[in-house]
Amino acid sequence: MIQVENLHKHFGGFHAVDGATLHIAEKSITGLIGPNGAGKTTLFNVIAGVLKPTSGKVLMAGEDITGLEPHELFDKGLLRTFQIAHEFASMTVRENLMMVPPGQSGENLWSTWFHRARIAQEEATLRRKADEVLEFLTIDHIADEKAGNISGGQKKLLELGRTMMTDARIVFLDEVGAGVNRTLLNTIADAIVRLNQERGYTFVVIEHDMDFIGRICDPVICMAEGKVLAEGSLDEIKANEQVIEAYLGTGLKNKVTAGAGA
């Protein structure tokens, strides 16, 4: 689905992404982990068109999408959510969903004058779809709440709901669990798994909660200092010497040797 080849993103002398190469398989839920400053979010931003790469290439289903704008990638089904939810606070939860699909007749001034019936029909269809999405995510009870008033976890579910209002093929989720209580985090995990299994969504998930990663992600990719260190199951990643050193600052072998000499 996504192939990243020798990708670099430099900010002056700082190499936030430093030659990263990885593959995201279609219909997978891939976890992306690593210590703070590993380059995970920068990698997301480059793939999703928020930032332009310094060099390297990004392919989607064999097509070169390197440097495309976010709206161009949106049209191709590549979406990205953010660690801090970007809801329209003064609009209702349902309205936040209804405004997502592009090319609505109501966006055209001419249509608002001469095609009101068509606009009303489109809005009714969008409302039904939005309500179906809210029911799927088990947050239909807050459909008429102002989005600015709902909890952090509900906002994360709302962001996930936005992807369901389009023909999403791959969704990049940035710290979906940040600031979310365990109950809602379980609801989010269930929704991601269902979207993957029932609708064929591909997900890439940045997350520090290893229980969450272990529950839904396979494979898991670990980054450090802008590079890909390892890929495999979470158990394989946890046992990887380079990963241990990146997180803890010392290798497992050194620990064992120190213990034996004590």
From TrEMBL:
GO cellular component annotations of the record: plasma membrane
Chain ranges of the ABC transporter domain: 2-250
Name of the protein: ABC transporter ATP-binding protein
InterPro entries: AAA+_ATPase (IPR003593), ABC_AA/LPS_Transport (IPR051120), ABC_transporter-like_ATP-bd (IPR003439), ABC_transporter-like_CS (IPR017871), BCA_ABC_TP_C (IPR032823), P-loop_NTPase (IPR027417)
Tagged with keyword Transmembrane: no
Gene Ontology terms for molecular function: ATP binding; ATP hydrolysis activity
Domain of life: Bacteria
Key words of the record: ATP-binding, Nucleotide-binding, Transport
Pfam families: ABC_tran, BCA_ABC_TP_C
Entry annotated with the keyword Glycosyltransferase: no
